[in-house]
Every structure is written in C-alpha cells, then in structure tokens.
Amino acid sequence: MSRQIDYGNLMHRAMRGLIRNVLEDVAAHGLPGSHHFFITFDTSHPDAELADWLSDRYPGEMTVVMQHWFDNLDVGEDGFAVTLNFGDSPEPLYIPYDSIKTFVDPSVEFGLRFENSSEEDDEDDEDEDDEDVSPRKKDADVVSLDSFRK
User: Fold this and answer.
1) Which class for 12: exposed (0-12), middle (13-18), buried (19 or more C-beta within 10 A)?
2) Residue 5 burial class via C-beta count within 10 angstroms: exposed 0-12, middle 13-18, buried 19 and up
3) What's this model's pTM, rounded to 2 decimal places?
4) How far is 15 from 113, CA to CA, in rounded Å?
5) What are the start-end ranges of the H helices in the chain?
6) What are the respective helix, strand and coil percentages of the chain, to the nearest 5?
7) What is the mean pLDDT of the segment spanning 95-112?
8) 70-101 as b/e: b if 16+ CB within 10 A
9) Does residue 82 sit in helix, strand or coil?
10) What is the mean pLDDT of residues 22-26?
11) CA distance 98 to 87
12) Of 149, 148, 117, 150, nearest to 135 (Cα)?
C-alpha cells in the first residue's frame, strides 16, 4: 500500500493549534475589543469534564459562549479549562481540543468546523476486504463564513 499525506488530519491539527494559540492569548491578555467565542463541543468525549447536570441536559453536544464573564482560563496542550456562568452558577469545564466541533468568533466573521466522518468510515470498513488497512482519520472541512454574517 502506498503512503499518502493525510491532509485532513494535518488540517485538523493545525486548526486546533490555532484555537489553542487564540486561547493562550486571551488567557494572558483578555478578550480584545468585541471578540467573543461560541464553542460547540462533544459532551460525551471521554476527557471532557462538566457538571453532571450539564451533561444530563446536553448529552451529545453543547455550545458555550466566552464573552463578558469567564474565569480561570487555563490553556493546556490537549484542552482548556474555564469557569463559565450558567444562570448565576459558576461551573468549571474542561474541553479537550479534539472534542470541539465548532469554534466561531462572530465579531470578525471567523469560524472553524470539524467534521467527524466516523459513521461513514464504519460503513466503508464493512465493505473492505481483510487487507492491512490503516485507521481512517477525520477529514477537513471548508467553512463558509456566509452563515455567520449579520
């Protein structure tokens, strides 16, 4: 089997690195101007940490907003921790980068979306012979910013 460059996986890694860099800057200097983030993540990810009542309320995915009030932003190599306010109740969260489905900053019409093609991969795997096949990776997705325009 010939070796191929896995552009989808490389793009996802670069996009997650961009999110990490942005969050590191925000942790050091705060949110500049009118910047704010909508971050949708997979609440069932094995490394995601959130209160039981939040995971019960949002069993598949959840969108959080980092704008006016957030605290304890701690950016790590694999994810970030932040305390957000849910109805006057501060709740700590840990969000792994690979659980993020979308990252949007509507103030500058910027957005990233991560597609998970694992269901398609499972169907494809059923059709393949018992060859030595390397595991499939997520594919990158081109994001149209038109949906975020005001």
Assistant:
1) buried
2) exposed
3) 0.73
4) 9
5) 7-29, 52-57, 118-127
6) 35, 30, 40
7) 93
8) beebebeeebbebebeeeeeeeebbbbbbbbb
9) strand
10) 95
11) 27
12) 117
Cα 12-149-23 angle, rounded to 5 deg = 40
At residue 3 the predicted structure's pLDDT band, cuts being 50, 70 and 90, is confident
What length is written for the chain?
Answer: 150
Phi/psi of residue 74, nearest 5 degrees: -125, 110
Instruction: Return the SS3 of 109.
Output: coil
How many angstroms separate the CA atoms of 136 and 126, rounded?
13
Q: Which of helix, strand or coil describes residue 54?
A: helix
- DSSP, collapsed to helix, strand or coil, labels residue 77 as coil
DSSP 16-53: HHHHHHHHHHHHHH---TT--EEEEEETT-TT-B--HH
d(CA 16, CA 123): 27
Q: 76 to each of 12, 61, 85, 86, 108, how far by Cα in Å?
A: 17, 21, 21, 23, 25
